[in-house]
Amino acid sequence: MTSDPGRSCTLLWFREDLRLADNPALTAAARSGRPVTALYVFDPDLSGARALGAASRWWLAQSLRSLADDCAAIGLPFAVRAGPTEKTVRKAVAEAGAGLVVWNRRYVAAERDTDADIKSGLRDEGVDVESFNARLLYEPWEIEAKSGGPLKVYSPFWRACRAKGEPAEPLPKPSKAKIAAGPKLKGIAIDDLELEPTKPDWAGGLREAWPPGEAGAGKTFSAFLKHGLKGYATDRDRPDRPATSRMSPYLRFGEIGPRQLWHAAKQAADGGDASAKDVDKFHAELGWREFSYHLLHNNPDLAARNFNARFDEFPWRKPDPAHLRAWRKGLTGYPIVDAGMRQLWSTGWMHNRVRMICASFLIKDLLVDWRVGEDWFWDTLVDADPANNAASWQWVAGSGADAAPYFRVFNPTLQGEKFDPEGAYVKNFVPELKDVPLKWLHRPWEAPEEALRAAGVTLGKDYPKPIVDHHAARDRALAAFDRIKA
């Protein structure tokens, strides 16, 4: 059915694309020849979808405020509403007199289903609907094995992606002159969404660590291009160095797009500011994100069900409440684990190498089901992503795609000594150990009493003794893996 000529407005529906640059739906709206009005719908009760965690809710509030300011700067009317998604969107379409609705695609199954229902219903009413890809370099269904069907191993997946050619160039941000302002929809204040903590207000560390919003994304990425991309291929595993892009929360909420990151990094290499090796590695990390979305698209319950069904028989232990609490609070007695968990709690983010170490400790040293850890990260990470979080936890558990060798058990002591060799990361987040000699910093339980005394540390009082013996826990984990080998 064609568009009703009485409907003269274009409605731009923002979702996980909270930016103006490289936003295909916004570009389409600006080019539609109609006045444009924009909407964001907050629906915490969308059937089948997972509610945002606490840290993500805090980030969303800041991002929406930033987006509102950015829309105002180009003369784009923007409203925030809360309620059931389909009902709220269709009501806004009717109020605005929209003959065209545009949005960028989402990939969680419940969200895809909702979008399909809305698209079908609006088209039946004579409203044109167009959707676009702003979130990924390649659509999940575009990448297939040579024999057909989804891919389950990263390397051939990424080769198939690269065979598609370079990702499209990012789109420019429409100027004020390009936007014809449509009707201003009535909305609610962002404060009324009650996304932020109040009593207690635990978000002080997040405010210090992050500038959410599109401008914050650009500033953070520019700093990475200047100071972190050169040497990225090797330094990205060092939590004691500013060698990671910190783009994950901005990608999560769409304040920057992967095409922008891809081409900016490529330009840095072309200009001689980074090596091809460094840029290839950075691109490959974007590729892992693509792979995670490919997995999620083909396995909608990735956060709830083992990708590898053999793990349905894995003998998980019932979590010891004291051990689980120690892991969450960074009081396990293993400094690199504790530094990571405290970084997470204070900043809403954790270095990727340390995420693997902390996840391995929970899963393999404590034999706790990976879903318990995935759920904690979902609540506490500002970049809690439905694809990355689940795929990465399953990878560490061994139950996921491409998790070879699935029985790998990280030694937290050796990992700390290898990737935090000067102890700067541990000393920053576990300050009670800052005066322990480096020789013992990652294994304080082995330090002589006089060395601990001189550092002002009494194990079990100032810093905990290890809650488990890693070597015994490793043997226990390997025995558990033996049970599912067949």
UniProtKB/TrEMBL annotation:
Biological process terms in GO annotation: photoreactive repair; response to light stimulus
Keyword vocabulary terms for this entry: Chromophore, FAD, Flavoprotein
Feature type site, description Electron transfer via tryptophanyl radical: W316, W370, W393
GO molecular function, one term: DNA binding
Reported cofactor(s): (6R)-5,10-methylene-5,6,7,8-tetrahydrofolate; FAD
Keyword Flavoprotein in annotation: yes
Domain named Photolyase/cryptochrome alpha/beta: residues: 8-137
Catalytic activity: cyclobutadipyrimidine (in DNA) = 2 pyrimidine residues (in DNA)
Annotated binding of FAD, by residue: Y232, T244, S245, R246, M247, S248, F282, D383, A384, D385
UniProt cross-references to InterPro entries, sorted A to Z: Crypto/Photolyase_FAD-like_sf, Crypto/Photolyase_N_sf, Cryptochr/Photolyase_FAD-bd, Cryptochrome/DNA_photolyase_1, DNA_photolyase_1_CS_C, DNA_photolyase_N, Rossmann-like_a/b/a_fold
Family: Belongs to the DNA photolyase family.
PANTHER family xref list: CRYPTOCHROME, CRYPTOCHROME CIRCADIAN CLOCK 5 ISOFORM X1
Protein's name in the database: Deoxyribodipyrimidine photo-lyase
Organism: Methylopila turkensis
